[in-house]
Specification:
Layout (H helix, E strand, L loop, with lengths): L2 H4 L5 E11 L9 E7 L22 E3 H9 L5 E5 L9 H9 L3 E6 L11 E4 L9 H6 L2 E6 L4 H9 L7 E6 L4 H14 L3 E3 L3 H5 L3
Parallel strand pairs: 2-4, 4-5, 5-6, 6-7, 7-8, 8-9
Antiparallel strand pairs: 1-2, 1-3
Helix pairs in contact: 2-3
């Protein structure tokens, strides 16, 4: 049985967790939002802070109606779909029903798989190990590049050259290297003011 058959075309998804919190990163930092985190990722960044999501077999398929029912009980009207890599799965059934309920849907993705679903905001976070597909750049409202070493500034510019003119640009220090990299990121942004700085503020707030 294929993965798509197992998931019934997106009626079931490998849910890791869903929870109400404050968005900690990027343009929507500080916004209350309901997070839907899906399991499975084939990118494998060594510094990933959600490695527990990588193996989708650990997360039995969950009916999307169950997730939607919990999401609509939340006071916030913003939904963040994240992972893992959520674009591994057909997301149109989930996103269309959420949209019908008047919710705004934000996607966090590496862009390494074909798009499915309807989104109000796409945060593209490109990874060297598995770069985004070309279609991802046109879909991005926000480009968020993780800076672990000085060489990552070049990677950031390579990706920035591919997104639309209205796409917002963010540099974010890799958490374990934030003390070393933040001074460099600050100076880079000051010299290249098209870039903004994102920090993982949820980690300072001690929330998920």
């Amino acid at each position: 049985m294929s993965n798509l058959e197992l998931l019934q075309g997106g009626e079931l998804l490998p849910l890791v967790e869903d929870f109400y919190t404050i968005q900690g990163e990027g343009f929507h930092s500080g916004k209350p939002a309901y997070f839907i985190r899906l399991g499975g990722c084939d990118v494998g960044c060594k510094w990933c802070d959600a490695k527990y999501t990588w193996n989708p077999k650990l997360y039995p398929p969950t009916g999307i109606d169950t997730v939607i029912a919990r999401a609509v009980e939340c006071k916030a009207k913003s939904i963040v779909i994240t992972g893992g890599e959520p674009l591994l799965y057909p997301l149109q059934p989930l996103t269309s029903r959420l949209k019908e309920l008047g919710l705004k849907i934000f996607l966090e993705t590496s862009g390494s798989h074909p798009f499915s679903g309807t989104f109000d905001w796409v945060c593209l976070s490109p990874k060297r190990k598995q770069p985004p597909l070309e279609e991802a750049f046109a879909r991005a409202h926000e480009l968020k590049v993780i800076i672990e070493t000085e060489q990552d500034f070049e990677w950031a510019e390579l990706n920035a050259a591919k997104v639309g003119n209205d796409c917002l640009l963010y540099l974010q220090p890799e958490w374990s290297r934030r003390e070393q990299m933040m001074p460099l990121i600050v100076e880079y942004a000051k010299s290249n003011p098209q870039w903004n700085i994102s920090i993982q503020s949820h980690k300072y707030m001690h929330i998920p």
